[in-house]
Write a structure and sequence with these properties.
There is one protein chain. By secondary structure, the chain is an all-alpha fold.
């Protein structure tokens, strides 16, 4: 079902962009702006279709030990065992990664069946990444920039693949984008917020 949905969205997007181009020729600014806003929303939907339709890899087939450790340590946190992992067998040991990503996954690990609950969380993190990228582009340069950003994500495999594996890369990039958006128009509260998010980023992925 993903292919027909994507095809319809491509047609709608092309129609809206053509409408914006025609409107610019007759100096209909409000019409152009409305068309571009609609195109941005459609482009975001277009970029999320492959993310939500991508088959999730079985946890045992994902990069070891990274993905199993992230998921397993989130499960142990949800169970109140502390930041430990047992993916190597034997006694619980401290995972090799910073705890931030597992802490973010822990609330999801407490609901539903493991590891599907954690994998679903990662998939929705990828959706949030798509939306945040377009929103930040819109904030910085308007709806046309949001369209272009969303189209890049729609044609790039990064979000789609990252939504199928329990790794921190995509969420770390999402935090970087938020920091960039905050410091682009600096103010006191934005400085504090960017510092806080940068600290969270270190906890999520120490080597960013």
């Amino acid at each position: 079902t993903a292919r027909p949905i994507s095809l319809v969205l491509w047609v709608v997007l092309a129609t809206l962009l053509a409408s914006a181009a025609i409107g610019s020729l007759v100096s209909a600014r409000r019409f152009v702006h409305a068309s571009l806003c609609g195109a941005a929303l459609v482009a975001v939907l277009l970029a999320t279709v492959p993310v939500l339709s991508a088959p999730v890899q079985h946890l045992a087939l994902q990069p070891f030990p990274d993905a199993p450790q992230y998921a397993d340590s989130a499960r142990h946190l949800a169970q109140g065992d502390g930041y430990v992992t047992t993916v190597h067998g034997g006694e619980p040991v401290t995972p090799m990664h910073s705890p931030g990503f597992s802490v973010l996954l822990a609330p999801f690990a407490a609901i539903g069946d493991y590891p599907r609950n954690v994998q679903t969380a990662v998939q929705w993190f990828a959706v949030a990444y798509v939306g945040a990228t377009a929103l930040i582009a819109w904030q910085l340069a308007g709806p046309l920039a949001a369209v272009l950003a969303a189209l890049m994500l729609a044609t790039s495999p990064f979000a789609r693949i990252s939504g199928t594996v329990v790794l921190s890369d995509l969420f770390a990039v999402l935090l970087v984008l938020v920091v960039m958006a905050l410091i682009a128009r600096m103010s006191s509260w934005r400085a504090y917020a960017s510092g806080l998010i940068a600290g969270i980023l270190v906890c999520v992925r120490l080597n960013m």
